[in-house]
Amino acid sequence: MPNYRIIVDLSDFQLYLLDVNRVVRAFPIGIGKMLTKTPTGEYFIINKQPNPGGPFGVFWMGLSKPHYGIHGTNDPSSVGRRTSHGCIRMYNEDVLELAAIVPIHTRVTIRS
Fold it and tell me: What keywords sit in the KW lines (predicted)?
């Protein structure tokens, strides 16, 4: 049984999927702007929502920090940049792949 966790590294715009301590996938991400930075800390995925509408692309995974999540985007050019209001943006195909792997309650560490 895999023991997944996620590390979001804001300094290199990458989301890493780990099984125990081994990186199994890395995905490029977009993060918060200077005025609306992505918060660092330890969180958990608390819900999942396909097709959430608005700018959230094809999938939303809510974090235990209210109003923050990992989601797709309708603007692929925002991945790899500081453009969000603090959420973690992924390419739609990547967020679908990640959401299919990680269960609710997966630990998410966001570091700078």
Answer: Cell shape, Cell wall biogenesis/degradation, Glycosyltransferase, Hydrolase, Peptidoglycan synthesis, Transferase
